[in-house]
Amino acid sequence: MPAAALLALALGCAHAPAALKAVPPPAAASGPAAPPAAPSAGEETGSPPRAALPSAPPNFELSSYEVVEKEESDALAMVRVFVGGSLAGQTETAPLSKEKRWTGRLQPGNRPLRFERWVLRGTGPWAKAEDDFQPRERFYRIDDRSLIVVQLKFFDSGRQYVIQTTREEPAQKP
Amino acid sequence: MRAARLAAALPVAWAALSLSACSRTVYEGEPNDHFTQATQLPGACTAVGTLSSAKDVDFYRIDSSKPQNLSVFVGGIRGADFVLSVLDADRRELKRYDETGTGGDEQALDVGLDGGAYYIVLSDKDEKYVNGGQAYRMNVRLESPEGREREPNDKSLQATPIKPGALIRGHYYPSRNLLADDTGYAEEDWFRLDVGAQGLYTLNVDASEVPGIYPVLEIYDANGYKVKEADSQGAGNPVTLHNFGVKPPAHYLLRLRSKLPAANAQVPYELLTELVPWQGRTEFEPNDQRLDATPFDQDSIAGTIFPEGDADWYRVSVPEDKRFILRAELSALAGMDLALSLRDDIGNELVHADNMGKEQPEVLTGYGVRKGDYYLVVSEKTGKKADPKATYTLAKSLTPYQEGLEWEPNDSSATAQGIKVGDSVDAYLAPKGDVDFYEFNVYTAGEIVFEITGLLNARLEATLYDQDGKALALGACRKAGDPLSFSKALQPGTYQVRIRAPSPDEANTRDKYTFRLRAR
CA nearest B345: which of A157, A96, A74? Predict the structure, then answer.
């Protein structure tokens, strides 16, 4: 895997420059992943901005959040994105109720995408939500010209979800 | 044998005579127009006196040494419109009777006396009265208060205490409470029921019929809130309230009254209360709203639709965080068209089962549930039918979900049930108007075959949509019961199939159809 892509994953893809997020699909994870590493102090406190690599803009965006009934159950969470069974990336780590994003550039075509919800409760390891409660794999039409935005909203303690898909043309995206 | 029976009956007859007949006659001693001059009565007796003028008032004093019930009957005399009152030692008027007009009899019934002095006051309200020469006869009767209402019990604070299981007799009498604070003068009898035992109970209350009386029974909690009302639905009917849930320690007040102004001094009502340990097999009234829902933990539960508009809520708790299929069956009731509704934890309706007509059972064929509370609500469709004696049975089952079963709700493209090519699903097309959506992925281009078995009473039709919602193919049965099969060459993608009947009335709660998807 290119170093830039690894860095992008470690930083949380939503905050990384678009060029860094154009990661080739890594191998599908077989077990709980380590929590994404926190940005170093230097990165947070003003190390010189990296120059954006000239690249095509992202054509896919996942936005996910959860309706949380109690503040104490607002654990850290992230959502992983699989394309054709391979891990393509993951959102940043944030409380369940906070909106988390992942943007990337996927190969055009009708692609099967699957989203995986992971939660970090207390001091335990990252735990993948039960398969029963994970969103079903579904095909999405990816193309070069527009941005597919998938909004994934969980509720009922993650037992249920709603997916909303919109397509944004480049001109509409600032 | 006969002599023995007679001997056994004699004490009873003697007791009855001593209670009902006056032991002696007392003549009023004028002047007795004031309580300080009241004619002393020795107890049960007949008082004889006259009203010298329209303004004459006769006071009688009776000293009670123990709790007992006082009844007074004064025969009418020409020209006099009697008013009869009973006062306590402090001359507080306990009860006033003025049921008849000039020349009529008056009587007082079931006035509760404790230890102390009481006064019976007889007066006339016909200003034209001039009949000082005709004597009246006033029969005074004293009886044990056991099993009797004790007037005045027209307010909650005056409620007669009752014990569960004991029979209480009382009268819808007089027709009006002349001492009432409000202008309605409603005569009502209040009873207080204290339940101190541990555990949960259901209270059954039955008040017998009394000719000419349209009884209404109400239950109030300790805070004075009316929690249940039972209407007898007509004059001359008994009134019944069953399966009222009691959580001890509890204090309840029962209010019994006639819906229309009427009285009957001859025929008493009999009020029977029964406290039955609650086993979870009957509804626990009041269960008319979500917060009061009866826990439904057994396989079946019984209830009644009463009064009109009654809706019975039952709480079904799913304890495990797994997927279950909830099925419910509701038995039929004579003369009623019942409906069954499934609601979520905040009361939103998930399914409304009203597939059948009058006097037919209802079935909720299956709904996917997870951990949490759900509610089954039983009601009568018109809201105008009720029967306290007719009992319905609501049965439920929670079956763990397994692949191949339908997972409701799957009524829209957003809630489509996932299925894989090569798999099948057994599903109901119910309740009326049911629509089932299934979603599947095709990973390799090829021809996909859609097969649906026939369903009695329903002409099935299936529509295939691509992931953009565009209809690609339509298959339909020619007649009810026919199977359905069609195929379509598909590229990789996500697809949905909608299965339904052309008419919402074509539903089947008994049989399932099987939907199979395979690649050719």
Answer: A157
**Nearest by Cα to A127 from A86, A168, A80, A169:** A80
CA atoms within 13 Å, Cβ hemisphere of B410: 25
pLDDT of residue B23: 62
Rounded Cα distance between A165 and B382, Å, is 43
Range picked from B20-34, B185-199, B475-489 for highest mean pLDDT:
B475-489
Q: Could you tell me the two tokens for B500?
A: 């339904």
DSSP state of B469: S
Structure-token pair, residue B27? 């003549």
Mean pLDDT over residues B240-257, rounded?
90
Q: What distance in Å separates the CA atoms of residue B172 and residue B263, rounded to the nearest whole number?
A: 5
Beta-carbon separation of B370 and A156 below 8 A: yes
Instruction: Please tell me the total count of domains within chain A.
Output: 1
Residue A34 lies in a domain: no
Gap from B406 CA to chain A (nearest CA, Å): 15
Chain A and chain B share a number of CB contacts under 8 A equal to: 29
Question: Mean pLDDT for chain A?
Answer: 75
Q: Three-state SS for B20? A: helix
Tokens of B215: 């009884």
Residue type, B469: G
Q: Is B414 exposed, middle or buried (0-12, 13-18, 19+ CB in 10 A)?
A: exposed
The pLDDT confidence band at residue A44, using thresholds 50, 70 and 90, is very low
Q: Tell me: the pLDDT tens digits for B64-103?
A: 999 999 999 999 899 999 999 999 999 999 999 999 999 9
Where does residue B198 rank: exposed (0-12), middle (13-18), buried (19+ CB within 10 A)?
Answer: exposed
Amino acid at B458: A
For B42, B45, B59, B155, B189, the CA distances from B150, given in Å and listed in that order, are 21, 20, 22, 12, 9
Q: Do A139 and B414 touch (CB under 8 A)?
A: no
For chain B, domains (ranges, CATH) are 22-63+73-142 (2.60.120.380), 156-277 (2.60.120.380), 290-400 (2.60.120.380), 413-519 (2.60.120.380)
In angstroms, the CA B4 to CA A173 distance is: 109
pLDDT for B129 equals 87
Q: CA separation (Å) from B476 to B83, B456, B463, B473?
A: 84, 15, 9, 10
Confirm or reject contact between A131 and chain B (CB < 8 A).
Answer: no
Per residue in B206-226, pLDDT (tens digit) is: 999 999 999 999 999 988 899
The rounded distance, in Å, linking the Cα atoms of B467 and A142 is 13
Contact between B436 and B500 under an 8 Å Cβ cutoff? The reply is yes
- Residue range of the domain that includes A146: 3-29+55-172
Please report whether residue A37 resides in a domain.
no
Smallest CA–CA distance from B416 into chain A, residue: A136
Paired with B313 in beta bridges are B377
Residue to substitute from B420, B467, B490, interface A, most A β-carbons within 10 A: B467
Task: Encode pLDDT of B147-203 as tens digits.
Answer: 999 999 998 999 999 988 889 999 999 998 998 877 777 789 999 999 887 888 999
Q: Rounded to 5 degrees, what are φ and ψ at A51? A: -75, 135
What's the CA gap between B473 and B477, in Å, rounded?
Answer: 14
Among A39-53, B257-271, B300-314, B501-515, name the one with the lowest average pLDDT.
A39-53
Which residues in chain B are contacts of A138 at CB distance < 8 A?
A: 439, 441, 467, 494
- B441 vs A132, A139, A159: nearest CB: A139
